[in-house]
Amino acid sequence: MARFVIIGTSGLGGTLARTLAGQGHSLHLISRGADALSELGRELGASFAAADVTDALALDAAILAAGAPLDGLAYCVGSINLKPAHRVSDSDALSDFEINALGALRAVRSALPALRASAQTTASVLLFSTVAVAQGFANHASIAMAKGAVEGLTRALAAELAPKIRVNAIAPSLTRTPLAASMTSNEATAKAIAALHPLQRLGEISDIAPLAALLLSPASDWITGQVIGVDGGRSSLRTRG
Ligand SMILES: NC(=O)c1ccc[n+]([C@@H]2O[C@H](COP(=O)([O-])OP(=O)(O)OC[C@H]3O[C@@H](n4cnc5c(N)ncnc54)[C@H](OP(=O)(O)O)[C@@H]3O)[C@@H](O)[C@H]2O)c1
């Protein structure tokens, strides 16, 4: 049985937590919403601590509350603020950077001693990017900048923390989660975006959670520094023309 920290527990993070708990692993959950967090913690028999990742001290305390050793950490926090570049304020861009990239660095920094103490051959860190880094999309300047930083962070940490700690990222395309509800809840919009994918549908959480669990497990012990697209082919394929 391994012990993992999951940060961000509404969408993918919540399903990842249920998947890992179902495999018998021990979990420490961190999110902002204290009520939903304590409900999930009780359901999964997990320890938990509420924190906003923009509060570095609170995040540090919430991670230290997980104890040591730790075998993995998944940073599933994210934001979607889509606007044309001329309407992206400095504070929009700084907020996306802090939530998506700086928060991930803070989380890994706080967890490092516990991850280094893992009894497994390797401990594992999992971050999340987006298809909008590999493929340019209009109105995505702020989130593409922030997630581009996550991809750089993934490779830099993977190099620096090898051989004890592996670091990988998953880059999804549009996936039905609470975060993406503003884009997926209108069926006409969802259908139009689905049709842009070679595999002709949007992502579901069940397309991503099994890979996330695999990347945290010793079964992926020789995978590090990778950004893996789970995107219905959208980042790299063109089926017409
Ligand atoms: N869904 C997609 O289409 C999609 C596409 C590309 C990439 N991604 C990435 O995949 C990862 C998981 O996304 P998801 O769709 O499953 O997200 P989600 O869980 O539906 O929602 C975002 C999560 O981020 C947390 N969060 C946001 N701001 C926070 C803050 N300041 N402090 C602490 N927690 C904060 C939310 O916490 P609360 O519950 O407390 O609000 C929530 O758990 C994210 O990194 C996202 O950027 C998702």
How would you sum up this structure, described in words?
The chain has a seven-stranded parallel beta sheet, sandwiched between helices. Helix content is 44%, strand content 15%. The chain has 241 residues and is α/β, with parallel strands linked by helices. It has a single domain, classed as Rossmann fold (3-Layer(aba) Sandwich), CATH 3.40.50.720. Bound molecules: NADP nicotinamide-adenine-dinucleotide phosphate (NAP). NADP nicotinamide-adenine-dinucleotide phosphate is lined by residues 8-13, 31-33, 52-54, 76-79, 99, 128, 130, 172, 174-175, 177-180.
Descriptive labels:
single chain; binds NADP nicotinamide-adenine-dinucleotide phosphate; alpha/beta; 241 residues; 7 strands; 7-stranded parallel sheet
Write the layout of secondary structure elements.
Layout: E1 3-7, H1 12-22, E2 26-31, H2 34-44, E3 47-50, H3 56-64, E4 72-75, H4 90-116, E5 123-128, H5 131-134, H6 141-161, E6 165-172, H7 181-184, H8 187-194, H9 205-216, E7 227-230
Bound molecules: NADP nicotinamide-adenine-dinucleotide phosphate (NAP).
